[in-house]
Amino acid sequence: MTLPQLALSSLAIGLVIGVGMSLLVVWAYRARARAEEETSTSIPQGITDVLGSMDDAACVVDASGLVLATSRAAARFGIEVGSTLENPELRQLVRGVRASGDTAMESLRITRGGLSLDPRLVSARASAIGARLVLLIVRDVTEQERLDQMRRDFVANTSHELKTPVGAVSLLAEAIESAADDPAQVRVFASRISAEANRLGQLTGRIMSLSRLQAEDGLTEVGPVSIDEVIASSIEAHVVQADSAGVELARGGDRGVWVRGDAQILIEAVGNLIANAIVYSPRGSRVGVGVRADDDVVEIAVSDQGIGIAEADRERIFERFYRADEARSRRTGGTGLGLSIVKHATQRHGGEVRLWSRPGRGSTFTIRLPQIAAPANADRDKKNKKRARKAARSAGSRVRNGETA
């Protein structure tokens, strides 16, 4: 072999050895990086900042189930740094994601880290962020589920409640047609149709009232409201009902108290409490409406001496269409929406409703509202309204006596 050929051979061998060594070094570095990645428990850059800005419960979990980092909301489920995931379903979800390397999501019912026995419905999402680390996000959807269920129940209950009077009107119309030759029966059926129509109108009206209260713009006419006027209007609207039931209406407590809100909605809310108190009171008893101003709070209490409310019914008494006494409500034409309207009307005015009741002794519903100072022209407006009501009563009396108004 000549010298040039020997030199070229040496160069080729050296080049092969150099490339091989380079490849070996690259492979070694990559193997080392993979090994470090597989054994590393360090959190990737930026993950901690993301967790700190999250409203949902979230955490980073390593291969042993140890929690390395959390969001602030994670404590609601008992998830803390340095602890392990206690919930077996969450642990199973994390293990499955670590094995597959994919993202998985499940809906689970879990308790909040022993802080509550009430199970919460959560949407859990797990994603692999490395060979050993998994990001777990737990979103509490219990309230959303409750609202969805309320909507479904509202539609179902409304449909059921509307079917009763509509079906009755249809049947009575057929009865009138078949009894066309009997004027007495026609009058009876016509009277019953009128009663069912009134019931249907009352039901639809209350559904509309409740819908307005639950809308974002539920209060459209907000201003200073005299509680004296609210109580007076509510009592006047139910005097005939009380007389027919043999129940006395009594008003007491503080006067000259004002709140801010919608007068008509407050009148309807207090009127619903008075109407319920009359319905559930025995003949010869009394329904009291009292007002008490305490610091910055106004309390409107409606008390009766009726049958009271059982302990089991008190938690549900403000639900839509719920009736503690189904038979009595049907007989008196109750819609089961009155107390729900009271609750939402009070909440719309920044207040709350409280209930005291004892079976056989009666019930007291108390509306608590924020108090405001009386407007500057309150006395003049009060006198004008009194004169207007007096003139209206006088005109009504002349009409009843056969005089021309």
From TrEMBL:
It comes from the Bacteria. This is Sensor-like histidine kinase SenX3. It catalyses: ATP + protein L-histidine = ADP + protein N-phospho-L-histidine. Its EC number is 2.7.13.3. The lineage of its organism: Bacteria, Bacillati, Actinomycetota, Actinomycetes, Micrococcales. Residues 157-373 form the Histidine kinase domain. Residues 371-405 are annotated as: Disordered. The chain crosses the membrane at residues 6-29. It is found in: Cell membrane. Keywords: Kinase, Membrane, Phosphoprotein, Transferase, Transmembrane, Transmembrane helix, Two-component regulatory system. SMART domains: HATPase_c (SM00387), HisKA (SM00388). Gene3D superfamilies: 1.10.287.130, Histidine kinase-like ATPase, C-terminal domain. Residues 383-392 have a biased composition (Basic residues). One of its GO terms (molecular function) is kinase activity.
